[in-house]
Design a protein that fits this description.
The chain is of the alpha/beta class. The chain has a domain at 2-77 and 147-229: P-loop containing nucleotide triphosphate hydrolases (Rossmann fold, 3-Layer(aba) Sandwich), CATH 3.40.50.300. 35% of the residues lie in helices and 27% in strands. The chain is built from nine helices and nine strands. Helix 5 runs parallel beside helix 6. The longest helix has 14 residues, at 159-172. The radius of gyration is 17 Å and the shape is globular. The termini are far apart.
Length: 231
């Protein structure tokens, strides 16, 4: 079954085209890398899927529905910046998530928080940047969603924290869900990906299974990315 379907999806900001008539289908049960340099349209696509933006042209569907209040109930979104109230602690944040999302699994969240030794009584403002990002990811992955949208989840953390974040992602998403990870740090995420979607100047230049890509191109996803984008 297809979780995310885009047909001729276009988004313009004034005279600038962020996404240019893209067609994309993502199936359930896959971890997909949304790969491209800054300004390629990754965040725009994620915001369209999470209903923070609306298309200029074309369509986008989540589990057969246009983005709406119904799809918000099955989409778990992690933005690329801190969005949680600084005065709240993780106990209060979990209560907030329980109120907003019927699919929030408190037991799953507590297990992950305890595994990191995070003081659930400590307010966010007293946490380090890395700890805040881990808390945000834990809350996002503790929902039993159909689509997880993760915008640059490892960009601001150290290598050891990246390993924890990726392990958290691959061990805590629902089996019939789709995980879409937007990133430009290809080498770090390549090992967890089933598929890669390459975005360049608002267009999809490749959508392929990572094993197939390695076999056909004779190089890693990261090496191919560097060749395509000359970085």
């Amino acid at each position: 079954m297809e979780t995310l379907v885009c047909k001729g999806l276009t988004k313009r900001y004034g005279n600038r085209t962020a996404l240019d008539a893209i067609d994309l289908k993502l199936e359930e049960g896959k971890i997909v890398g949304l790969l491209g340099p800054n300004g390629s349209g990754k965040t725009t696509l994620i915001k369209l899927a999470s209903r923070l933006l609306v298309p200029t042209e074309g369509s986008i569907e989540i589990c057969g529905m246009e983005p709406s209040e119904k799809t918000k109930a099955i989409v778990s979104y992690l933005p690329d910046r801190n969005y949680l109230p600084e005065y709240m602690n993780t106990n209060e944040l979990m209560e907030l998530y329980r109120d907003f999302y019927q699919d929030f699994d408190s037991d799953r969240a507590v297990r992950m928080l305890e595994s990191l030794g995070i003081d659930m009584a400590m307010p966010m403002k007293k946490m380090s940047k890395g700890t805040k990002e881990k808390v945000q990811l834990i809350l996002t992955m503790s929902r039993r969603a159909k689509l997880y949208l993760l915008d640059e989840p490892i960009a601001g953390v150290d290598p050891a924290a990246r390993d924890y974040i990726l392990k958290t992602i691959i061990t805590n998403y629902e089996e019939d869900a789709t995980v879409l990870i937007s990133t430009h740090l290809i080498a770090d995420v390549e090992g967890v990906l089933d598929e890669a979607v390459f975005l360049k100047e608002g267009q999809i230049v490749l959508h392929q299974g990572v094993d197939e890509l390695r076999s056909e191109k004779g190089m890693s996803v990261d090496e191919y990315f560097r060749e395509v984008f000359r970085c």
